[in-house]
TrEMBL record:
Entries under InterPro entries matching the protein: Ald_DH/histidinol_DH, Ald_DH_C, Ald_DH_CS_CYS, Ald_DH_N, Aldehyde_DH_dom, MeMal-semiAld_DH
Limits of the Aldehyde dehydrogenase domain: 23-487
Listed name of the protein: methylmalonate-semialdehyde dehydrogenase (CoA acylating)
Molecular function per GO: methylmalonate-semialdehyde dehydrogenase (acylating, NAD) activity
NCBIfam families referenced in this protein's UniProt entry, alphabetically: MMSDH (TIGR01722)
Keyword Lipid biosynthesis: no
Source species taxonomy: Bacteria, Pseudomonadati, Pseudomonadota, Betaproteobacteria, Burkholderiales
Any one biological process term the GO annotation gives: L-valine catabolic process
The EC number(s) this enzyme carries: 1.2.1.27
Origin species: Cupriavidus basilensis
Family: Belongs to the aldehyde dehydrogenase family.
Record PANTHER family: MALONATE-SEMIALDEHYDE DEHYDROGENASE, METHYLMALONATE-SEMIALDEHYDE DEHYDROGENASE [ACYLATING], MITOCHONDRIAL
UniProt KW keywords: NAD, Oxidoreductase
Matches recorded under CDD domains: ALDH_F6_MMSDH
SUPFAM superfamilies: ALDH-like
Length: 507
């Protein structure tokens, strides 16, 4: 954060707050810079909202909930229909902003937004998603049915690595279910998120139904403790996610917290060699490794260890450059701090005795000498006690372990505390069935390196990668954003009344 220079004198775009349907300049005296990771150019300013501004946003959402919860389903889904059309038509423009502030390549930025857009499209199915259950005549003249009703003000805290997709995982599903929402985007790259929010307002989201505040820990803690906030969705680091879950739960909130990962890809010798190698390189180094579902660990089983030189050769062909440059495969990492952390962990791997087969620390990009670039990096000879295996590096670093059998590979993956995603590469149906049955990871890919499900299913990370029972989007998030009310009803006709019954049984 840098508040030394008054933001007004910089003549830079500022991230506005959205409160009660109006985009407003913050009164905060604390501001941060939005920095292009490829150039270090400051491209915008973001306020750290005041306590009064956060209170105002939550109060606005609370007031709006009284009317929005009673807005017909059809009206709510028509807002989503218009919103998805606006996002689709403005995708290229928003992707350019996203690339400038986050660093990922333009095609990957478009993919970031598109995967979020798929959730918006699914939100248009709210009519069937929110249906309850009904049973007629469960006892003499008694019917029982359930209602799915909104829960109130919900909050979302989103990470820097997907400023398009993750906000679109959250607020569309929350508000289409009849809730109101307060969004806190990452303070590192909020500009593309705000462009999506502007389109949501253009689509007809009423004042107060969607609000946005910016900031750091103070804002996060307010959202976790405010009595009017009923539920919190979080995606980000394990450290912050654990804090959000514990603090929010302590204050009676529903919390879903998607956190860190160490995703493995297990390769059997019978796998399709070239398709597997291409998948491993793309999943390991795409988005500069800054995906919570990145394949950061490759487990070579048996003779597949002979593929290692080809894996290195393919990684060497990737082009490192600024994200907006044509043909770029790997853009910069998010910040100088991220760069220092990644290169520091690489050095730890070297000191621990792992074999550094490909070193991306000294990559040079002509014209972007100040960029936060780390090239594809590959270690072999890695043991499970090394920091490059135990820690989520969140950079373009892949570590390779070798085992003799599928059983050993399964045991290795299951010993790791994280459980976001895992992949198996094989042409054996029997091996695949054994793997998906015995592996203790929430999301499994068979010949797919990044098994993020389509929005009709829920994101189901597990163990150390997730706190809370219900995941983002899909059927689970409808359960998260609604409460079930069960009604048991009996209607009497003109039949003469029976006597008093003091038993619990229904008649």
């Amino acid at each position: 954060m840098n508040s030394a220079v008054p933001h007004a004198t910089l003549q830079l775009p500022t991230a506005k707050l959205l409160i009660d349907g109006k985009f407003v300049e913050s009164d905060s005296n604390q501001w941060g810079n939005v920095v292009n990771p490829a150039t270090q150019q400051v491209i915008g300013r973001v306020p750290f909202a005041t306590v009064e501004e956060v209170d105002a946003a939550i109060a606005s959402a609370q007031r709006a909930f009284l009317a929005w919860r009673n807005t017909p389903l059809g009206a709510r889904l028509r807002v989503m229909l218009k919103f998805q059309d606006l996002v689709r038509r403005n995708m290229e423009r928003i992707a350019r902003t996203l690339t400038a502030e986050q660093g990922k390549t333009l095609p990957d930025a478009q993919g970031d937004i598109f995967r979020g857009l798929e959730v918006v499209e699914h939100a248009c199915s709210v009519g069937t998603l929110q249906m309850g259950e009904f049973a007629e005549n469960v006892a003499g003249g008694v019917d029982t049915y359930t209602l799915r009703q909104p829960i109130g003000v919900c909050a979302g805290i989103t990470p820097f690595n997907f400023p398009g997709m993750i906000p679109l995982w959250m607020f569309p599903m929350a508000i289409v279910c009849g809730n109101t929402f307060v969004l806190k985007p990452s303070e590192q790259d909020p500009l593309s998120t705000m462009e999506l929010v502007e389109l949501a307002m253009e689509a007809g989201v009423p004042p107060g139904v969607l609000n946005v505040v910016h900031g750091g820990k103070t804002v996060v803690d307010m959202l976790c403790t405010h009595p009017d906030v009923k539920a919190i969705s979080f995606v980000g680091s394990t450290h912050v996610g654990t804090h959000v879950y514990n603090l929010g739960s302590k204050h009676g909130k529903r919390v879903q917290s998607m956190m860190g990962a160490k995703n493995h890809a297990v390769v059997l010798p019978d796998a399709n060699r070239q398709q597997t190698l291409n998948a491993l390189v793309g999943a390991g180094f795409g988005a500069a490794g800054q995906r919570c579902m990145a394949t950061s660990v490759v487990v070579l089983v048996g003779q597949s260890r002979d593929w290692l030189p080809e894996l290195v050769a393919k990684a060497k062909l990737l082009k490192v450059n600024a994200g907006h440059e044509p043909g770029t495969d790997v853009g910069p990492v998010m910040s100088k701090a991220a760069h220092a952390r990644i290169t520091g962990l690489i050095e730890e791997g070297v000191q621990a005795g792992a074999a550094l087969l490909l070193d991306g620390r000294n990559v040079k990009v002509p014209g972007y000498e100040n960029g936060n670039f780390v090239g594809p990096t590959i270690f072999s000879g890695v043991s499970p006690d090394m920091s490059i295996y135990t820690q989520e590096i969140f950079g373009p670093v892949v570590v390779v372990l070798e085992v003799d059998t599928l059983d050993e590979a399964i045991a290795l993956v299951n010993r790791n505390p994280m459980g976001n995603g895992v992949g198996l590469f094989t042409q054996s149906g029997a091996a695949a069935r054994k793997f998906q049955s015995e592996i203790d990871v929430g999301q499994v890919g068979i010949n797919i390196p990044i098994p993020v499900p389509v929005p009709y299913f829920s994101f189901t990370g597990s163990r150390g990668s997730k706190l809370g029972d219900l995941g983002p989007y899909g059927k689970q998030v409808v359960q998260f954003y609604t409460q079930t009310k069960t009604v048991t009803a009996r209607w009497f006709d003109d039949t003469p009344a029976e006597g008093v019954n003091t038993t619990i049984a229904l008649r």
